[in-house]
Amino acid sequence: MLESSLLGQVRGYINGEWVGGGDDTLPVYNPANGQLLAEVPNMGAEETRQAVESARASLKQPASLEQRREWLAGIAKALTENREEIGRILTMEHGKPLKEGQGEVDYAAGFFSYCAEHVDELAPRKLEEKPRGCDWTVHYRPAGVVGLITPWNFPIGMIAKKLSAALAADCPSVIKPSSKTPLTMIALFSLLHDVVKLPPGKVNLVMGSSGPIGDVLMDHPDVRVISFTGSTEVGKELIRKSADQVKKLTLELGGNAPFIVFDDADLDVAADQLMANKFRGGGQTCVCANRILVHSAVAEAFGNKVKERVNKLTVGDGMEPGTDIGPLIDRSGYHKVRRHAADALEKGATLIAGDVPAPIENDWGGFFPPTVLQGATAEMACWKEETFGPLVPLVHFDSEEQALELANQTEFGLASYLFTADDARAQRMMAGLEFAHVGYNTGTGPTPEAPFGGMKQSGYGREGGLEGLFEFIEPQTVPKG
Ligand code: NAP
Questions:
Q1: CATH classification of 257-447 is 3.40.309.10, yes or no?
Q2: Is 134 a catalytic residue?
Q3: Domain segments of the chain: what residues?
Q4: Which of 221, 349, 415, 417 has its CA 20 to 30 A from that of 451?
């Protein structure tokens, strides 16, 4: 079992108290070695209803902007001070290298700091104009109780994006982490309880069966906003379920990012950026390059640069110093990457680095080598689906028009990347790319200061930046006669 000063209570949290902890539990495993890390309570509909009611009751005690700023800054500080321990817990349950786990804690702290610095944007706004002879004021009211549902791939980063904006808006929340990575969330709650001392009901934690918990969050009339990050499949289910109550949704769903390298690009820069972008979290990120589009004239040279870099990567337990890529989260994640690699090879791609390893038997994680394929095509599964693993399929193109058409050939519209020395071409490409994030000569992903979200089936709503700060707000307009 995982021992930690931040895991004194491995339980849910409702109305300011740790709850749950009976016989009905769910195991949490280390994907690097199958070690049982903890048994967490398998909570359900009844606890979720209690959490919603406790959140609703807390709406009766609104917090001033000053108080919210203090909480947000306090959480940022607590995260920063505990970055090593939270990073360790995160690495143990997710598998990513420790330096990445700790880096993710810094990233999470950045969202709370950003909201603390900008919470004054939510002060009432008086209009300079006086239409209809009235004084007009816009009040930024909290939308009400919010349900925050997060995935396993960024156990602290994803909740930070949502919770920082919810607290800034003064919305109480009911939070559900992924069953694969609940321990990092519990560690966060231990800081919210012991260090920041949020009032009862402001934040509530339920974990366990996603069906019953999700259903209560969707059916309860007091839950006004659901902010969900996860698969497009579950996102669509939530859209359908939200219709009866016209519930507001913020959806951060899957991606299928193109990474486009033109023949005039600096190939070393592009290769270095691809490495940083693609292999973070072992390739299990929504923003990582999934389809690498390379101009035919430089395809071989670029492939060789990528191969050279990939061959230097170390795959292993994220707790081992020197590990670049940890295990994939579970057997099904491993077999998806394996299926994509095998399918591409069968359909004519060439293996230039890595391997297609044997199937695995265990349910917890598996180590997949970083694998590079030349000559992938749009007929292959790795083109059509989000691989979510360390597979790098290089697809060739011959013209700007073709690159744009290929890049947009997906139902997703999250992140994209573009490498060229020609600014006019870059501007044309950006205008045509149907993606909400376009890295231009960089593989960098989201940051707390800028809005991030999806177009098309990657979702709607934004997290980060001023746009994200307003996600849990209902503007109320008051003309005074
Ligand atoms: P997932 O299976 O959709 O699960 C996400 C969360 O939803 C988990 O907490 C899960 O709980 C819960 N859930 C599952 N079914 C539910 C239901 N019917 N009602 C309510 N909640 C439900 O996704 P995942 O495998 O954890 O995450 C990977 C996906 O997330 C990828 O597609 C990735 O692209 C996407 N993602 C997107 C972004 C973005 O910013 N757009 C960021 C990160 C990840 P359980 O774990 O308990 O089942």
A1: yes
A2: no
A3: 12-253+458-480, 257-447
A4: 221
State whether the beta carbon of 159 lies less than 6 angstroms from ligand 1: no
Question: Residues 393, 386: contact at Cβ < 8 Å?
Answer: no
Ordered DSSP codes for 228-276: EES-HHHHHHHHHHHTTTT-EEEEE----EEEEE-TTS-HHHHHHHHHH
- Assigned CATH class of 12-253+458-480: alpha beta
Q: Whose CA is nearest to atom 14 of ligand 1?
A: 210
Which residue among the candidates 171, 286, 288, 382 is catalytic per the annotation? Answer: 286
Q: What angle do CA 105, 74, 6 make, to 5 degrees?
A: 55
8-state DSSP, 471: T
pLDDT in tens, the chain (481 residues): 999 999 999 999 999 999 987 889 999 999 999 999 999 999 999 999 999 999 999 999 999 999 999 999 999 999 999 999 999 999 999 999 999 999 999 999 999 999 999 999 999 999 999 999 999 999 999 999 999 999 999 999 999 999 999 999 999 999 999 999 999 999 999 999 999 999 999 999 999 989 999 999 999 999 999 999 999 999 999 999 999 999 999 999 999 999 999 999 999 999 999 999 999 999 999 999 999 999 999 999 999 999 999 999 999 999 999 999 999 999 999 999 999 999 999 999 999 999 999 999 999 999 999 999 999 999 999 999 999 999 999 999 999 999 999 999 999 999 999 999 999 999 999 999 999 999 999 999 999 999 999 999 999 999 999 999 999 999 999 999 9
This prediction has a pTM of 0.98
Candidates 453, 361, 373; CA nearest to 415 is 453
Q: Decide: 348 and 369 in contact? Cβ < 8 Å.
A: no
- The verdict on whether 171 is a catalytic residue reads no
How far, in Å, is the centroid of ligand 1 from the Cα of 252?
9
